[in-house]
Request: fold
Amino acid sequence: MNNTTMQNRVPDMFGSMVFNDHVMKERLPKETYKALQRTIAEGRKLDPTVANVVANAMKDWATEKGATHFTHWFQPMTGITAEKHDSFISPVEGGHIIMEFSGKELVKGEPDASSFPNGGLRSTFEARGYTAWDPSSYAFIKDQTLCIPTVFYSYGGEALDKKTPLLRSLEAINKQGLRILRLFGHNDVKRLKVTVGPEQEYFLISRKKYYQRQDLVICGRTLFGARPPKGQEMEDHYFGTIKPRVAEFMADLDEELWKLGILAKTEHNEAAPAQHELAPIFTEANIAVDHNQLTMEIMKKVARRHDLACLLHEKPFDGVNGSGKHNNWSLSTDTGINLLEPGDSPRENAQFLLFLVAVIKAVDEYQDLLRVSIASANNDHRLGGNEAPPAIVSMFLGDELTQILDTIENDSDYEQQDRQELKVGVHILPRFARDTTDRNRTSPFAFTGNKFEFRMPGSGSSVSSPNVILNTIVAEALSQFADELENEADFESALHDLIKRTIRDHKRIIFNGNNYSKEWVEEAARRGLGNCETTVDALASYLDEKNVQLFTKHKIYTAAELRSRFDIQLESYCKTLNMEALTMIDMAYKEIFPAVSKYVDFLCETVVHKKQAGLIDVKTNEEILAQQLSKLSAQGFDKLRHLEDVRSRAFTIEDIHEKAMYYKDAVLPAMEALRTDADQMERLTAESYWPYPTYSKLLFYV
Ligand code: ADP
Ligand code: MG
Reply:
């Protein structure tokens, strides 16, 4: 295809499978379009007659594009998306059918709530749950199915999904942010928008080899595997030339994503062998979260087409980097101002500083919740290794900005006459060049010029939770600021004092140094910052009084919803570890030990044959190897028995938190012990006898 064709083809393709604003304008009667827009803007219930017209237009559009089914697409607490397909067919007289889709079907669905994680909010005997259309996210076509983005909630109205709290948190930050913007005289701003750009890391490996490893297929990560002779120490993969096969995958993926209106922008190789990244152009938080869920799903699907397997697990391989999902987050107005970008006038700068210190205060006061928001059994393997931020939450601001905050805190550098005018931001703040603010790659939460980059989220999880927390904690800081400033006669002075005080009270969270260093761990402890290395430890603070108050105040979660989420996260932790332990046990009995026995047998036969042939009388290498392997295998077998024993005892523990602790403290170490011996045996066994592909084959033979 020549360039000019491509120039038309990509824009034509972009969003072609989305029932977006453009399509709505074209296909809906003017009145209906307006009514729908009003509903979206005001978040109100949709009038049933309007819903019918919209549904019909959607169905016509979708069937023209080849769709035969529709589904309510939702995001239950499993972390992935759910859909139940219904066809459009409806019988009419004479054994015929017509294609039909009603407003009622568009607006509401009724999946079984008890079959999804609900943390005790639904029991099977009252299983009813509902899905309801979220018109702020466009419908789209995937697999010949019209997908309607929906929220998912129980009969009693409790949220059972990851979208509802996100929408609620967006409302909260909008409300509080507008209060602040009014104080700065922005009466034209109608809405505060949260923008998010999640950078997605992933691995691509040969599909054939993937199927040869039960651990990858079942658990998404290798539970066994000796280190290959080469890892990522040569630093030759990051931004390296993309292999043709991978390049074809990326091109195909881009097209699939573009059709769905997903702004896939940057594709490159990452640090580990076989690791890559996709970064989209940022968009509004709700859409960004939906799009990231779709991106993950489509990555897997496209990989399959190219005989590849896409691994989204946070730590598929030991010894090389795991995968994260940098969550770029910022605030802007519907009038197009980025609130985290310093402006050109003192007043704009004062406003920037106020939003900045709101984030600083929020992150400091709710470090624990940010840690919880990205906690999972999988992410535990990644955080704190020398590849990802430690489990300590801190913020990087860069030297320039930190210095400015110091100056404000100490009132140094302020000329007397300046102080009488607008005190904060008397100096025009410099625009922060990206290269001065983006240098520190080790920080979990870095200011990068006009946004924050939260680097702790794991590659496989939805970015809903981290954004729910960010929005909520910043909303809380803004609400406290607004409470304080709204009734002040002398706004400028009060503002100055508030900013100064906030810096003084929360500067301990700012750290511009190397987050991977041992010294930082010690320093952070001195500063009193949290350091929860595991999910189980992190979750302990989830239900603290201050957190329950925060969530209920801003109507993000009710106390019952919060409790259910706590339970779901712990249950999921236990289930993950249980599944991993069982997979290891299975692989050990059925694959590893039989392979070693067979190889030892071969070695012994060789020894016998050599002796019979009178070839040698000293100890043969086969003898030495057979001996070593026999010893290892006896030792490993004990570890296997121990793991079995330890795992089965987990079921005697009732309390979910206690049970999770047990998995962490007893089951996980037993798994690691078994792996050590198995990997040792792998090193000594001929590859032709080894039952699954080695790390070398997985990582370098793509
Ligand atoms: P990196 O060096 O981290 O790879 P990039 O500039 O390539 O940085 O972009 C990181 C991500 O940040 C992209 O997905 C981009 O769209 C996103 N981003 C840029 N500006 C904003 C913003 N205002 N709000 C949210 N995300 C943003
Ligand atoms: Mg980044």
User: Anything to note?
Assistant: The pocket of magnesium ion (ligand 2) is lined by residues 199, 326, 453 (CB under 6 Å). The radius of gyration is 28 Å. Confidence is low (pLDDT under 50) at residues 414-422. The chain has four domains: 15-161, 170-197+343-554, 200-323, 572-700.
